[in-house]
Structures are given as C-alpha cells and as structure tokens.
Amino acid sequence: MESLAKRRLVIVTGRSHPALAADVADKLGVELTEANLREFADGEIHCRFDESIRGAHVFIVQTHSSPVNDSVMEQLIMIDAAKRASAKSITAVVPNYGYARQDRKTAGREPITAKLVADMLQTAGASRVLSVDFHSGQIQGFFDIPVDHLVAAPVLEDYLKAHTDPRELVVVAPDAGRVKVAERYAQHLGCDLALVHKTRPHGVANVAVARHIVGDVDGRHCVLIDDMIDTAGTIVAACDLLKAHGANEIWVMATHAVFSPPAVDRLFNAPISRVIVTDTLPLGPEKRFEKLEILSIAPIIANAISAIFEDNSVSDIFGGENLL
User: Fold this and answer.
1) What is the residue-averaged pLDDT of the chain?
2) Mutual orientation of helices 18-28 and 298-309 as an angle, nearest 10°?
3) Residue 198 — very low, low, confident or very high, per pLDDT cuts 50/70/90?
4) Mean pLDDT of 229-238
5) Residue 255 banded pLDDT, cuts 50, 70, 90
6) Annotated catalytic residue within 6, 180, 198, 287
7) pLDDT value for 1
8) 8 touches 56 (CB < 8 A)
C-alpha cells in the first residue's frame, strides 16, 4: 500500500496566470516547479521541467486566458512533458476552461469545441481535470477521465453576507440557464429570486436583448450572478432593464472576468454600483476600473488539490453542491 508520506505533490504553472498558481502553491505550502517555457524563433513552445517529477502527482495550473489558443497549447505541451517524464498522475488545473461556450451545436455545420479541448487534454496525457464554474454541466460528460468541478459560490456568498442585508437583497439570474445557480444563492442567503428573460438574435454573436423581469425588484438591492462576463452586453442589458423596473441598487457578480472590449466601458457607464469577480483570469491595469472588486479563488483551488492528493472527497468541500 502506498504511503502518503512517500507521495510527492508538484505544482507547475504556465504563463497565462502565474500569480494565481503562486497563491495556490503558497496555500499548499509547496514551491512551484519551474517549467522553463520558451519559444523557438517560429513561435513553437518548448518546455523542460527543472527537476525530476518521476512518480510525482503533478498539478499543471493554466487558465485559458487571452490569447486562448496559446494558453491551451502551452498546457497541452506541459502535460505531454510530464507524461514523458513519468509522472504518476497529471491533473490539468484549468480555472477558466477555454471554448466552454461552444458546448453544443446551435446551427448546422458548427463545431463543438468544448469537446475538442477535452479530447486534447486527455490525448496529451491528463489523468484528471479540475476546473471552476463550467459554462454548462454537460462539459463534464465530454471527458473519459475524472473531472472535479469547483464552484466560486462560497467566495461570492461570503462577500454578500459581509456587505449586504438579505432582507433587501434580490439575487437575479441573467438568463434562464442560470436560474438553478441563482436559486442556490438565494436559498443560502435567505433572500428573494428574480429572473431576466433574454433573447439572442439568430446568427449574431455577443448580442443579447433583455425583454422581461420575472420577480419583484422595485426598490430592492439586486445582484446579478453569472459565470462569465465577456463583452458585458448581456449583463448591461439586464441592468438597464432592472433599473427601468425600479431597482434601487445593482451589483454584478461573475466567476470569470474575460472583459473583452468594450466590456470595461460598458460596465463603468452602466447603472451598476459594484462589479465583483474572482481571479480565475488575470486582470491587467487596462481591465480594472473604479467599481471593480476582485476576490481570490486560490483557497478553493488549493483545498481541492489537497483533497485530490490525499484521496479525499472534493464534493465535501462544497457540501455536495458543486454540480451545475
């Protein structure tokens, strides 16, 4: 029987978000292993680990941030290097899973690239995947290896408990797909729930039209909760509708702050008091603004890595509520 004392935990980071990986490693009390990533003259990526990882349990941390294709390829190369270096297990830690929105065909002749990324991670040699707030639960079914799905809810809920009065609070789902998640927040916080009914024009990307509010928001403190903010079109349309229905104060919360242009301008000029996000994606100075608050996801990822390494339950960290 293998002894835990003889097992070795190795944390490796790519270049997309090294600050998050460093925070995770610090909370686990380990040093990051250097991957020595570099490019050849033509842009090909090379990787070589500083130390032997033979027989180690390797966790390769790489969020799929812009440029997404480079981030994905870099993680695949690190996974392949770890496999060929005889790592005992390789966990792909993907705080933000790239191509997650393309998880089904919405029209003919389209790809399902969320499945393609899953196939590539497995082919490269990942024996497990750990990610935060998938865009949809079905992505877990794209893998033939274990998938640990983490949720940012504990971090966001703790913030709301510390900064709001649940008697005045209404948790708002920005679309029908987020109702189940928003309902869970409302139950935990003991507050009311509302829903924005939106539609998307056929064949037009990054455009959403908010049409109706289901629930009472007049004179209330509304918190819109979503998994991702990209160009912020959906969120801002929902905020404008909430304001038109008499909302007193509006906050926006999201796990993944993509903030593609013109998201920052839209959020800054919208009727929003605060935008609260986690640091699953790096946010440079050009993506920061006065209303923005960033919460650390590192404790949740570190707890999950510790549970995996020690063969404990990841679901127990969330009381079994880490499913979409």
Assistant:
1) 94
2) 50
3) low
4) 92
5) very high
6) 198
7) 39
8) yes
The alpha carbon of residue 184 and the mean position of all alpha carbons in its chain are separated, in whole angstroms, by 18
What is the per-residue DSSP string for 14-49?
-SS-HHHHHHHHHHHT-PEEP---EE-TTS-EE---
Handedness of CA 53, 57, 63, 64 (dihedral sign): positive
| In contact, 24 and 301? CB cutoff 8 Å | yes
CB neighbours (10 Å) of residue 217? Answer: 23
Phi/psi region, residue 77 (left: phi>0; alpha: psi -120 to 50; beta: rest), is: alpha
Q: How far apart are CA 195 and CA 216, in angstroms?
A: 10
Phi-psi map region of 99: left, alpha, beta (phi>0 left; psi -120 to 50 alpha) = left
Residue 60 near residue 78 (C-beta atoms within 8 A): yes
Q: Which of 41, 43, 35 is nearest to 59 (CA)?
A: 35
What burial class does residue 89 get, using C-beta atoms within 10 Å of its C-beta: 0-12 exposed, 13-18 middle, 19+ buried? Answer: middle
**Is 115 labeled as catalytic in the residue annotation?**
no
Strand, coil or helix: what is 223? strand
Which of 308, 302, 322 has its CA nearest to residue 30?
302
**Tokens 């998201």 sit on residue:** 263
Per this entry, what is the length of the chain?
324
- Which two structure tokens, joined as six digits, stand for 216? 């009472």
DSSP class of residue 228 equals: E
Interior angle at CA 17, CA 11 and CA 20, nearest 5? 60
Q: Is the pTM of this model over 0.70?
A: yes
* Joined tokens for residue 138: 């079905």
Report d(CA 168, CA 216) in Å as an integer. Answer: 11
Share of the chain above pLDDT 90, in %: 88
Bigger pLDDT: 160 vs 197: 160
